[in-house]
Amino acid sequence: MLQLAPTLYMLQVFDRVMSSQNQTTLIALSFIVLFLFLVMAFTEWLRSALLVRSGIKLDALLGSQVFNASFEANLNQGDTDPMRAFGDLLRVRQFLTGNGIFAFFDAPWTPIFMGVLFLLHPWLGVAGCIAALVQFGLAWFGYRHTVKPSELTNKASNDANAYLQKQARECRGR
Length: 174
Fold this sequence. Notes:
By secondary structure, this protein is an all-alpha fold. The chain has a domain at 121-174. It has helices at residues 5-20, 23-75, 82-97, 99-106, 110-120, 122-173. The model has no long low-confidence stretch (mean pLDDT 84).
């Protein structure tokens, strides 16, 4: 709800301050919004710190297990890449500490924000829905056009790592 503060501030400025030319109202509204921005910054910092701690705890809990499993897989000389497990753990930890988790938790609020936009003015709601559809379309288009090259890059990287590991094993065996 704090993210609506700038929008409500501007609505109040144009509705109350511009019509009455009252500078006291402008100063009071500005201090209220400044306080709300400080609260929002503090909660974002708190949320980030909490997620970083959870990522570190996850890494501490699973790091040794991943190391042991990849070490055993390397001893068995299977076709699996032992570094892949570490990469997967790193990706999970980065997701937990990055912006992806913020989007995951903020997504359920989207209908509420859209509803507030419709309450403010129907055309604002329509514009918000159109913007959301355009953003969704661009994200889908970008995803569809980056998946195939990304898969090819990952496959080439995995093939190169497997080849290098095979050559290293052969050199150790000599």
